[in-house]
Write a structure and sequence with these properties.
about 140 residues
Length: about 140
C-alpha cells in the first residue's frame, strides 16, 4: 500500500507530456547537448498492449516512472505505444540500471513490458537521418 501511495503522489507532481511535446523536448535536449558537448539517454517502455483498455496499468506504470526518476528527467509519450523517459546527462550504464529497476518494479506489480534504450550522441542514434534507430535490449 505504501508503494502505491508513493507512486500516486509522484504522478500528481509530474507532467506527462503528450507525443508532440515530448518529441520537442527531445529535440531541444539534443540541441543543448550539441552546444555543450554533452549527452543524454532515452528509454522507451513498450505499452502497446495496454493502450486500448489498460488505463489503470498505464497510470500505474506512469507512477512507477515518476517515483523512480529525477526532477530533471522528462516523462512522455514518444508515440502512441511507447512511454518514454528522457534522462539528461545520463550515460548508458546509468540508464540501463534505471530501466532494469523500473522493469523489476513493473513485474512486481504484474505489468509486463519491455524497453528500448538509446544514448545520444552515439549508441542507437543515427545523426545522418536525425532520428533514433531501433535497438531492443
Amino acid at each position: 500500500m505504501e508503494t502505491f501511495k508513493k507512486m500516486f503522489e509522484a504522478i500528481q507532481n509530474r507532467p506527462i507530456h503528450v507525443t508532440q511535446e515530448f518529441q520537442e523536448i527531445i529535440k531541444k535536449e539534443r540541441s543543448r547537448c550539441d552546444r555543450n558537448n554533452q549527452g543524454f539517454s532515452l528509454i522507451w517502455f513498450k505499452m502497446a498492449s495496454f493502450t486500448e483498455n489498460g488505463n489503470g496499468i498505464i497510470n500505474q506504470m506512469i507512477g512507477i516512472l515518476a517515483s523512480r526518476t529525477r526532477i530533471s528527467d522528462e516523462i512522455g509519450w514518444y508515440d502512441e505505444s511507447n512511454l518514454g523517459v528522457l534522462l539528461p546527462d545520463t550515460k548508458l550504464n546509468g540508464a540501463h540500471n534505471l530501466a532494469d529497476q523500473i522493469i523489476s518494479i513493473a513485474q512486481e506489480n504484474d505489468i509486463q513490458t519491455s524497453y528500448q534504450l538509446f544514448v545520444y550522441p552515439s549508441f542507437g542514434w543515427d545523426s545522418s537521418k536525425e532520428k533514433i534507430k531501433k535497438m531492443w535490449l
